[in-house]
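Researcher: Sequence recovery benchmark, item below. Answer with residues only.
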């Protein structure tokens, strides 16, 4: 959990306004991450449907003999790694606690 407290402005109103700007920016980033996750999930689902194997099985070494190309494999694995990173970032941002000064 991350705690955020804005303080040190010249007035309480400035601190409140600044806190709102920070919170709004983080909420915007969360929306972007969710959009990116949805886009990546669609790409992953397309690979799973095309090759009739789950991403989990593919990553854990199950054979996917009918991969059209090494490029497909690289792109699929890349989408999975990006998804993990995005989920981690989203988790961090969603667990921020905003404290009043």
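Model:
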């Amino acid at each position: 959990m991350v705690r955020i407290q804005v303080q040190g402005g010249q007035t309480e109103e400035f601190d409140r306004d600044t806190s709102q700007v920070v919170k709004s920016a983080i909420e915007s980033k969360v929306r972007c991450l969710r959009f990116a996750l949805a886009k990546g999930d669609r790409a992953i689902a397309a690979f799973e449907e095309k090759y009739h194997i789950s991403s989990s099985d593919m990553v854990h070494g199950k054979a996917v003999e009918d991969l059209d190309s090494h490029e497909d494999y690289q792109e699929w694995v890349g989408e999975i790694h990006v998804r993990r990173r995005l989920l981690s970032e989203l988790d961090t941002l969603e667990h921020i606690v905003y404290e009043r000064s």
